[in-house]
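Hi F.,

I've been meaning to write this up properly since the lab meeting, where we talked about keeping a consistent format for the predictions we share between groups. The idea is simple: the sequence comes first, exactly as it goes in, then the structure tokens exactly as they come out, then a line or two of notes. No screenshots and no reformatting. I'm using this chain as the first example so we have something concrete to point to.
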Amino acid sequence: MPRLLIVNADDLGLHKDLNRGIYLAHTEGIVTSASVVACGAAFDHAATIIQECAELDVGVHLTLIEERPLCPATEIPSLVGSDGRFLPSYRHLTARILMGSVSPAEVRRELRAQIERVIATGCRPSHLDGHQHVHLLPPVWRVTTELAGEYGIRWIRVPHFASLFGSSKSLFDPLFRLGLNILSAVTVSLTDRGEPRIRTLGLHLSGRLVEGDLLQIVAALRPGISEIVTHPGIKTPALGARYHWNYEFSTELAALTSPQVISALRSNGVTLTRFSKC
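Output, unedited:
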């Protein structure tokens, strides 16, 4: 059985410096797919990249936190704060869901608008995933699977942390990772239709993926289809001022364009692929 690898870059459309990094990681490196934030401030810039890169698969990075929604705030009041923006993080959204104050109809309205905006660029979305993995929250997951079926989108990311403690940035990280793994297993089991799943790799290295990490992942890759989740970009003061994630975007870009990594793919018999080809 062949070893097939999708290298996906998240957060296309959030910032021009991320867009530029993703463009280079695709045209000069191993990125085969990107997940675009339809409500991102740099979406129009991302749309030009989508048009230019015919061999880049594009999925929708479903977003319900941090950014400004596509729908007017008055149409989705359960999803926004007093400033009309989405809530600051998955923690805030989860708390509101647990209180029963999030409307599934409003989730559907906003996520449909995001998918439709990506389709309007002329591309057919190849996959769905979520900013900060919010698509796994049960009421959001139900809407996500319904929309995937409606738009004929076969692949939805089911994230799994292979390491609970590796590269932790805080004492909270292992708990978050364990919780996400449990949520993935439980949520997916409720809607499992026996469809194949794509393994997600490198999540515990988000924002800190270096050449050595990629070489280890490639060497240990199992038969079947795997996805490496990456975050390339060009680290600038403007990007750092907008997103305080402490991600080493340029380091990831260097790893994804490394000649050693490209050579390792060939020597290990790994074939790069895309969601639309699987």
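Notes:
The chain has a mean pLDDT of 93.
Residues 173-190 form the longest helix (18 residues).

If this format works for you, I'll send the rest the same way.

G.
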